[in-house]
């Protein structure tokens, strides 16, 4: 069985271009979606207009998370 990772990227919602890659790397889609939900709740009051996308990739992924 393949080692699939679910990687979260930040996008500009107007252009749909990725502006920050690999902000989160998760073993399953549900965890990645929960991360996006929490980030959206945090950023919404600040009026920060960004979006998120989940990419399923095989193998190791470098994370930008600290």
Characterise this structure.
The chain has 66 residues and is of the alpha+beta class. It has one domain (4-58). Helix content is 23%, strand content 38%. It is built from one helix and three strands, in the order ββαβ. A three-stranded antiparallel sheet has the order 2-1-3, covered by helices on one side. β1 (4-11) and β2 form a beta hairpin.
Q: Any descriptors?
A:
66 residues, alpha+beta, 3 strands, globular
Low-confidence region ranges: none
Report the major sheet: 3 strands, antiparallel
Order of helices and strands: EEHE
Rg is 12 Å
Shape: globular
Roughly what fraction of the amino acids lie in strands? Answer: 35-45%
Structural class computed from helices and strand pairing: alpha+beta
- How many strand segments? 3
How many individual helices? 1
Q: Order the strands across the largest sheet as they lie in space.
A: 2-1-3
The termini sit apart by 29 Å
């Amino acid at each position: 069985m393949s080692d699939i990772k679910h990687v979260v990227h930040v996008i500009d919602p107007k252009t749909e271009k990725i502006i920050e890659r690999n902000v989160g790397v998760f073993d399953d889609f549900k965890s990645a979606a929960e991360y996006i939900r929490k980030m959206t709740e945090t950023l919404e009051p600040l009026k920060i207009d960004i979006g998120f996308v989940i990419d399923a990739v095989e193998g190791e992924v470098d994370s930008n998370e600290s």
